[in-house]
Amino acid sequence: LDLIKDDTCGVQLYQRFEQLEYEYEASVERKRNALAAADAGEGPVKKPRQQEIRRATIEEVKAMKYGMNERFNKDTNTRRRKDKHNLQITRKLGDATLHYAHGRYKEAVSVLSEVVVQAPKLPDPFHILGLVYNSMGEKKKATDCCMIAAFLSPKESSLWKLLVTWSIEQGNTEQAWFCLNKAISADPGDITLRYHHASLYMEIGEYQKAADSYYQIVQVCPDNVEALQTATMLYKKCGQFERTIGILEDYLKDHPPKDDPSVVEMLVSVYMERNEHSKALERIEHARRVFSCGEEFPLNLTIREGICHAHLGDLEKAEFYFSTLQKDNAKLRMGLVMAVANSFMSLQHYESALKYYLMLEGCASNNDLISVKIARCYSALKKSASAIQFYYKALQAREHDVDTRLTLTSLLMEENRDDEALALLSPPPNSALSNETDVDGSQPWWLNVKVKLKLSHIYKTKRMLEAYVEVMYPIIHESLTIDSMHQKVKQRKRLTESELLERVQVLGDRQTDSVFGNFRQPASKNVILKAHRAKKSLQKMATSKEEMKCAALAAGLDWESDDSEDEVPEPPL
After folding, report:
1. What's the rounded Cα separation, in Å, for the pair 187 and 512?
2. Domains of the chain, residue spans
3. Domain 1-33+69-187 homologous superfamily, CATH
C-alpha cells in the first residue's frame, strides 16, 4: 500500500518493478557466474568413506527415534495455525467482494487493506482492490493495485491485458507497451495480443518492428495467411525484398499454391516489381502445373503471366493471355485492364496500351485519369488532334491541373492554334474576385508561375510586348521583393586599430637574442590566418591615411589624424 501512496520523483510503479526485475536478474547472473567459476577451479571431489556414511545414518536413525513425536506435534500446530489464518483471509476476501458488489467501496477498501497487511504476497486482494478503486474513479490507484497483483502472479495474462486497456485509456503509452509485452510472455499463444502489438507499431510508423511482430504471428500460426501477407507487405515497404521473397517461398514449400493463390500472386508481384519477370513466370507456370485439369486457374495469375511474357518480348503469347479482357467485361475487371495498359505504356507499345485504355473509357470512376493516359498515347503516336480532344476532356474534370493545361497548350501551339492556347492560359473574366488560395491551400491555376511564364513566352513569340510586360512585371517585382526580404547580410564586427595590432602580435618579430629565437609563439592555424588578414588591413589603413594626408596638405589644410580607435570592418572569412 505504501507503493501505491508513494509517488516520489515521478517514477511510475511499473518502472520500479522493472528496475527490481533487472537487479534480480543481474544478481542471479552474478551468482551463476560465480558458481561456474568455482566449478571450473575445483579439483577432484573426495569421496566420503563408508564409515562416515554409516555414522551419519545412525545419527539420523536416533534423531528419528527420539525426536519424531516432538517434530510431528510442532508441524501439526503450525499447520493448524496456517489453516485458521487462510480461513480468515478467505472469509475477509468474501466480505470485501460482497461490499464491492453492493457498491460499499469504502468498507471494501478497509477490509482489503487488512488482508493486504496479513497476506502481502497474495495477488487476489490487490486485484479486487484495483477493481474497487476503478469503480470509485481513482484510476491511478486502480492501475497501481492491479500492477502489484500482476507482478505477484506474472503468468496471469488477464491482469496484464486489463492493465494494457487501462494504460491506453490513460494515455500512458510506455506503460501500455510494458504490460503488453508481459501479457504476451504470459500467454504466447494469444494471437489477439500479438495483433494488437503489431498494430501499435504500425500506428507509430515503426514498420520494421510491425513486420517482425506480424512474422512472429506467422511463426506461432503458420497457416495465418493474413499475418503472412501483412508481414511481407511491410518488409517490402522497408525495402527488404529478399526477406519478403524468402518468407513467401518458405510458405509455398509447405502449402500448395491452390490452397491460397493470393500468396503466389504476392510473390509474383514482388518479382515483377524487381523486374525479375523470368522468375515470376517460373512461379506462375509451377502454380499452373499444380492446379488439376478440372480446376480453373486464377485470372489474376493468368493476366500477370501475360504481362511477364510482354516484358520478355513475346507479345503474341501475351495477347493470348489477355484475350479474356474485353470491352463488355472491362468494368468488372478494371484493375486487371489498367495493369495491362500500364505495362504496355511502360514498354512504349502505345498502340496496345491505347487499346486497353479505350476499354476503360466511361467505365472507371476516375475517368479524367483515363482520358489523360489516352491523350498521352495519341500524342506519342503523333495523333495530335485526338490527343487534344482527350486533354480537353480531362481538363473539364481537373480544371486546376497545371501540368495537363500546359501540355495541352504545347500541343495547340504545335498545331498553330495560338488563339486557343492563349485562351487556355488567360485568367477567366471573374478571376479578380477569386485570386486567393482555396481552403485546401492550393491556388487557382492562373496564379501559378508556370502558367504565367508559358503565357509570357507566347506573348513574346507573337511580339505582343505590352501583354508580355503586363505578365512578366509582377513576377519580376515579386521575385526581387522576396530576394530582398530573404537576403541576410551578416553584419561583421568592426575591428579597431588596437584590436588589429593585438592580432598581428602573433606574427611578431623573432627574438634573435633568445635561444628560442627561431620559434614563433604557438598558435592555431585559424589564429594565424586572422593575424595575416589583420596585417593586410593595417597596411591598407596606413596607405589610406597617407593618401588623405597628402591630399589635405596639397589643398593647404591642416592634417589631423585620430589614431586612437579607428574602426575598420573585420575582413571577410
Report:
1. 86
2. 1-33+69-187, 325-398, 412-428+444-485, 497-507+522-569
3. Tetratricopeptide repeat domain (1.25.40.10)
Task: Mention the CATH class of domain 325-398.
Answer: mainly alpha
**Residues 13-34 pLDDT 10s:** 656 666 666 666 677 777 777 7
Q: Reduce the secondary structure of 456-496 to three states and give it as a string.
A: HHHHHHCCCHHHHHHHHHHHHHHHHHHHHHHCCCCCCCEEE
Q: What is the 3-class SS of 307-360, one letter each residue? A: HHHHHCCCHHHHHHHHHHCCHHHCCCCHHHHHHHHHHHHHCCCHHHHHHHHHHH
CA dihedral 286, 287, 293, 295 (to 10 degrees): 180
Alpha-carbon distance of 387 to 379, in angstroms, equals 5
More confident residue, 83 or 507: 507
Find out whether 158 and 13 touch, Cβ atoms under 8 Å.
no
Cell of 80: 493448524
Quick one: pLDDT at residue 347?
94
pTM of whole model > 0.85?
no
Place of cell 471573374: 430
Cα(227)–Cα(238) distance, rounded to whole angstroms? Answer: 16
